[in-house]
Design a protein that fits this description.
The protein is of the alpha/beta class. It is built from 21 helices and 19 strands.
Amino acid sequence: MSWEKEVSELLRRRELAKKMGGPEGIARQHARGKLTVRKRIDALADPGSFRETMALTGSASYDGDDLRSFTPKPSVDGTIELNGRKVVVSGGDFTVRGGSAGAHGGLGQELAPNVRAREWRIPYVRLLDAAGGSVRSFEDIGRTYLPDGNIWSAIDVAALSEVPTVSAVMGSVAGLPAINACFAHFNLMVKDTSQLFPGGPPVVKASLGYDITKEELGGDRIHTRVSGCIDNLARDEQHAFEMIRAFLSYLPSNVWESAPRGDTSDPVERADEGLLDIIPRDPRQVYDAKKLIRSVVDAGSFFEISPDYGKARVTGLARLNGHAVAVMANHPKFRGGSTDVAAGNKVMRLIQLCNTFHLPMVSFADEPGFMVGLESEKQGIERAGARLVATTTQSWMPWLTIVVGRLYGVAGQCQHRASGMFRRYAWPSANWGSMHIAGGASAAYRREIESAPDPAAKRAEIEARLNALASPFRTAEATGQDIIDPRETRGYACEFAQDAQRVLRTQLGPPRIPYLP
């Protein structure tokens, strides 16, 4: 006897699931300028690679044994391929109850997407478009419940030390999904169509008594510029998918594997003449640190992370002779390149990413020191500085520092590591010390300056005397510090990235210190 009837029923239920929240819900999604979750997955994935899991999960009503209606679960899950590599994807379906979780699951439930990503050792991508918990679920289950979501969050936290995880905020995201947005190595928002908060405007009104819009409360300007909760901002959904693919292309599928090597057509010996004069002789002038990075790394390979937050430091991923590396640089266009709390946070996240997924670090250092001033004190610069020192000293990935300009104080100390595979080169434009000569002279020689007939002239005399000692060549004479022609930087950096591979192979596996978001 054939099973054609049951197969027909299977196909019918699959089609019902593909209708998501129905025509009205889909129309509302489009009216907000957003794709449906299924269109998003198709746009992200390599063509034809989506394999859905738990497609038949949902709420059904029956007339006897006949299915009368079916509402699918408010998410679409499965595996896709990105650039030929398998990835677990989970997308919130806002057309079904605003993406709020319902009363599904229980004994015999299939593996959740985050569990599958860990067990299969493949990256995990969340396309978040969900409002979190809803009081409607109380009616579904006939009771309230104790908040014990850490049963699931523990899996997400553990996954951060095992597989690359990306969260894309594709709509208004609240509750636990808002926290899931930050349980990621990289996250993003979409301009004008996504917001992020633990509770939206109605909750704010009920709790605090004032009115506020979604955009004012948790829009991209808040989270990509001020809070730093979101790394990058996508122009539109298609741009978001491009960034997800790009970010994952630099990382291995899991911590037990090495990062894939990319294109090697950019000559290792390429020397950019512009590097010879990119650092101005006048310290009051600034330069473009991103241009410096692009002049050294493989052509077109620089992928910036968090470009609008902590702008005194540039961070991102790139390639050197095809090898994936993390890169960072002080950016003198913003706060003189001084490391403030926000910039320090960016650096620590990048160091964690390197430690976890076995990427070498390449730093272009022009560090005037930790940010000073009242606002910096209010933000806790000392504790932030201590955390950066601790993170630096506890790191273990291969690290290359190229001192292109200033290197002062404890912040400058964070461009060095005393153990493991570490290498440092300096350009002739470099200068260093415990502090700037100008400020330091005013403090150390205060009495001598104040008692002089012409204090300004005396201060200038002392500073000139000290500046004569600041030549990097004098340091090289005493310490053996290697000073290189700036145009040679790419060759040395590519050599380092190649040499790092043998060390990285010995570090495969989970990180010594778990990754913390």
